[in-house]
Description:
Blueprint: H1 5-8, H2 11-14, H3 25-32, E1 38-39, H4 51-60, H5 73-83, E2 90-93, H6 96-107, E3 113-117, H7 122-130, E4 134-138, H8 147-153, E5 158-164, H9 176-185, E6 191-195, E7 220-225, E8 238-241, H10 244-253, H11 261-272, H12 274-298, E9 302-303, E10 309-313, H13 318-327, E11 330-331, E12 333-334, E13 343-347, H14 351-368
Parallel strand pairs: 1-11, 3-4, 3-5, 5-6, 6-7
Antiparallel strand pairs: 2-8, 7-8, 9-10, 10-13, 12-13
Helix pairs in contact: 4-11, 6-7, 6-10, 12-14, 13-14
Bound molecules: pyridoxal-5'-phosphate.
EC number: 2.6.1.9
Pfam families: Aminotran_1_2
Subunit structure: Homodimer.
Amino acid sequence: MSLNLDELAPAFIREVIPYKPGKSIDELKREYGLETIIKLASNESPLPPSQKVKVAIEQAAHDVARYPEDAAPVLRERLAKKDGVKPEQIVIGAGSSENLGMLIRCFVSEGDEVVVSEHAFSVYRIFGKMSGASIIQTAAKHYGHDLEAMLAAVTEKTKIVFIANPNNPTGTWLTFNEIQNFLKEVPENVLVVLDEAYYEYVEDENYQSAISLLDQHTNLVITRTFSKAYGLGSLRVGYSISSSDLVNYMMRVRYSFNCNSIAVAAALAALEDKDYLEKNLANNHQGLIYLKSCFDKLGLEYVPSATNFILVKVGERAMDVFNALLKEGVIVRPTVADGLADFLRVSVGLPEENQLFITKFEKVLKEIL
Ligand SMILES: *Cc1c(COP(=O)(O)O)cnc(C)c1O
């Protein structure tokens, strides 16, 4: 008998459509033979890495022949201090995506349900399917999460409700009161995973982290990342905060040595570089204002954003505009797969990158629309 992978893999694995990242700069250079490329596609920090981080990486490089200290106790201690929780409540992941995966592996199996919102971060759906869960998707409200609909979608089979606050790819956010009220209503035996990957960027005073709600809600898990505002996208480091009992469960499915010593050293250094974070947030603030004013002038609608990216409505030919921009050396992100076919998501870059994007965007729009 020959090997039949379709038979070997469970049906729910066959049905998974792998996550498709944005095009990389090198890929585009190879494809179109372009020299200058700007990438505003993956919500990364547009600033080069912090000098403090580079120094820490170089120092940590001396020890890479050894396994790292398992589960990064020093980083957990430092984060606990920053976030006002106990180190035992924190799990470090190779990116917060790994924490999301650990939660799914721990608590979700075939036949269970996972509740997500339309236009929410696609990884929740993909990970849920990997465990054979049914994905229950509620309709969006003003492009964001409709918490009432999500609550109504919870059944006896629901194991996890995922909420991105703010959300990617829409940039929408929920206020602290909305989250608080939702947590009061959700059955206690359903986990609420609140993804705060863009927490640092939010300026609305009605927004607040839900960390202060952890004590009252043992079913709450919060995830954070170093991939965005801290500028460590390539190093893969993120974390979750929850009850220590829940951490004990996550430890059962965590791969040993899942956080490497370079990433941990870089994260520790990034936490000490307040200037970098401030510069990043200030650049983002200005960049969003600039992009919004340009979209206004072009008569294009956009979704109000609390993040380092913005969703702009281009119309039916959004994919053509995306492809034409690629040829001009500008990478943005199509959102067809997120149910937003008429839109493109643009990450905020450095001022000169934003300007170049707008120049190319105007040119391409004239040609295509
Ligand atoms: C970018 C992003 C993350 C971060 O993923 P990492 O694995 O930490 O790099 C998590 N959630 C959302 C909604 C994101 O957009």
